[in-house]
Amino acid sequence: MSAFEGFPIEISPAFEGQRVRRKDMYVELGGPKIDYKFELVRVKPMDEVEDGKVEIIGPDLMDLKEGGSYPFAILIYVAGEKLDTDLEGVIERRIHMYTNYIEGIMHLNQRYDIWIRIAKKSVKKGLNSFSWWGRALITLFKSEMPYIEKMQVTFITDPELIKEKYEEALKIYEERDARVRGLKDEEVDMFYGCVLCQSFAPTHVCVITPERISLCGALTWLDARAAANIDPKGPNFPIPKGELLDPIKGEWSGANEVVAKRSLGEVTRVYLYSMFEYPHTSCGCFEAIAFYIPEVDGIGIVHRGFKGTAVNGLPFSTMAAQTGGGQQSEGFLGIGIEWMRSRKFFYADGGWNRIVWMPKDLKERVKDAIPPELYDKIATEEDATTIEDLKNFLLEKDHPVASKIREMEKAAEAEAKAEKVEEVAVQQPVQMPTMPQWTPQIPAQAIQMPAVSAQTGFKITLKGVKIKINRLIIKKAGGK
């Protein structure tokens, strides 16, 4: 008998990667419009977990107004002799995968950034309560992660309780991330990979090192190691470092080999510390996007929670489409926010000296990571909303990129002057003085040109010439 006998909808890996468009959704839980949402897994003693229990605190699914967006939280307690707190993040990240097994439920992102949509068609089929979702999660987790002996799931839709629990969850995430700080990439023999997001980004392979957290921010090197050890056939796996090819850009032969294999040859080289040439691929669950701003030769960063428009005129959603999907998009890079605290943060690109703009709340959140002398020199949406505003701010604050901006401005001015002189020269040709007419007496045979066939022709080479064409019309000789 199927483990999902009696369920109103199908549950299968075949649904992984499904999308639920706004016009097809019954409700939206979390997402960009909602400030408070999270999912959290806690390991508890055996006697504190009621196995199989599904609890709903607040309105159930059918009590929510169709078409609305709501605060939402998932709290899961697990117990088992082989479980310890190192596995909390690993189990938590699987909520994404197993929820996407459920027909008509789209789950994106992780931790405090969850975005879920439930399709109308699944509600019509009988998915009329969060309890079905909870029961499915318990069945999937316990069947595929047998070291979980007991599990209970709580769904919270009460806005006030979510807000209260949200702050507790943030502290727990911070404690997890802090455990790996201090470890260096050079001190370990093994990196770890994650392909959990390949259902949405088929060529994406996340390379996790002690100094480079996963793009989603949910898996540290310790988390990935624990996951690979306890579930060798799962989405997390070891990556032998191999030969260090470039210590500045962060290129290892072993990482290249594994990424090439896991991306089916689509990605063959990856720089872990740079956003240029061969940047790390991006999935779609990244916490933030780093984007290059050529006008100031700097890097801006915008996080998923920012609802405005970045200084380059684009919202997070537009840049996410350019960044994600598992492609190497030079100049756009999905990152985990914890990476901003790493000494390898854009190590090849100038690190914090290259960061010129980020939203105010993100800047405050990572204040401890920003060199004190740079903090006031990095613009926020309150300082600059356009590239011109940003340029003026950076010059005024004498940001490290200010000297490059001045160089670019001088070069632009010089080029503009040269073009103006050239334009004047073309518009006002030099008038040669009138000379007396004189016809040289040259023998006719001296001025005869050699015959030129259609095959040989003439070759004219122009050197040091700049040509401007406002309009070019090509017509067949003798034709219409």
Class of secondary structure makeup:
alpha/beta
Into which percentage range does the β-strand content fall?
15-25%
Low-confidence stretches: 432-459
State the separation between the terminal residues, measured CA to CA.
78 Å
The first-level CATH class name of the domain at 13-175: Alpha Beta
Shape: globular
Which whole number gives the mean pLDDT? Answer: 89
CATH architecture of the domain at 13-175: 2-Layer Sandwich
Q: Which sequence of strands runs across the widest sheet?
A: 4-1-7-6
Helix content: 25-40%
The CATH H-level homologous superfamily of the domain at 13-175:
Bifunctional carbon monoxide dehydrogenase/acetyl-coa synthase(codh/acs), Chain M, domain 3
Q: How many runs of DSSP E, i.e. beta strands?
A: 17
Kindly provide the radius of gyration, computed on alpha-carbon positions and rounded to a whole number of angstroms: 30 Å
Number of helices: 11
The CATH topology of the domain at 13-175 corresponds to: Bifunctional carbon monoxide dehydrogenase/acetyl-coa synthase(codh/acs), Chain M, domain 3
